[in-house]
């Protein structure tokens, strides 16, 4: 890494700042998506898993191999520290969430890892959220507008390009 570039810990801290926290009914309504308060936690978990898929992909694309795991683990540690406070997730233990997150990353990887994959992965999460009853079919186009705002792939890439 260049002397003026960020350390893996600094990059992880900066990435963490970009990760969306609690997905509230109010936030969804700003995009015209109807939501229920009892679904906020599940929606937050799903969008967090989607975000972490893209964070991991950006890390793999921009960070030397020897720093990738430590950087991603630091992001996870920061999320774990705010699990019940910032993310307000209480119904699932952290360890169980990690299993769920890996399942979601395996779901998004086949479509997200190819050119045009951001839209295809967005369709995957739309399918998932619709199947779980978290969004209505008519809200899919609105979700596709919300996702780039909540999961700013270009900002992850710009940030991580400062690390090499």
What does this structure look like?
The mean pLDDT is 90. 68% of the residues lie in helices and 0% in strands. The radius of gyration is 16 Å and the shape is globular. The protein has 8 helices and no strands. It is mainly α. The protein has one domain.
Number of helices: 8
Number of domains: 1
Largest sheet: none
Compute the average pLDDT: 90
* Oligomeric composition of the shown chains: single chain
- From the alpha-carbon coordinates, what is the Rg to the nearest angstrom? 16 Å
Share of residues in strands? under 5%
Structural class: mainly alpha
Query: Helix-strand pattern, N to C?
Result: HHHHHHHH
Number of strands: 0
Flag low-confidence runs. Answer: none
User: What is the percent of helical residues?
Assistant: 55-70%
Distance between the termini: 5 Å
Q: What would the principal axes of the Cα set say about the shape?
A: globular
């Amino acid at each position: 890494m260049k002397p003026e570039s960020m350390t893996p810990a600094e990059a992880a801290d900066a990435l963490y700042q970009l990760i969306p926290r609690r997905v509230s009914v109010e936030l969804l309504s700003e995009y015209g998506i109807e939501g229920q308060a009892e679904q906020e936690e599940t929606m937050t978990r799903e969008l967090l898993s989607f975000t972490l898929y893209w964070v991991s992909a950006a890390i793999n694309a921009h960070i030397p191999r020897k720093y990738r795991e430590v950087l991603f683990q630091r992001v996870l540690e920061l999320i774990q520290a705010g699990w019940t406070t910032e993310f307000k997730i209480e119904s699932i233990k952290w360890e169980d969430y990690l299993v769920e997150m890996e399942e979601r990353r395996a779901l998004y990887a086949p479509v997200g890892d190819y050119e045009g994959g951001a839209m295809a992965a967005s369709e995957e999460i739309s399918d998932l959220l619709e199947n779980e009853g978290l969004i209505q079919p008519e809200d899919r186009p609105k979700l596709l507008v919300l996702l780039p705002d909540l999961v700013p792939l270009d900002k992850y890439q710009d940030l991580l390009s400062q690390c090499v």
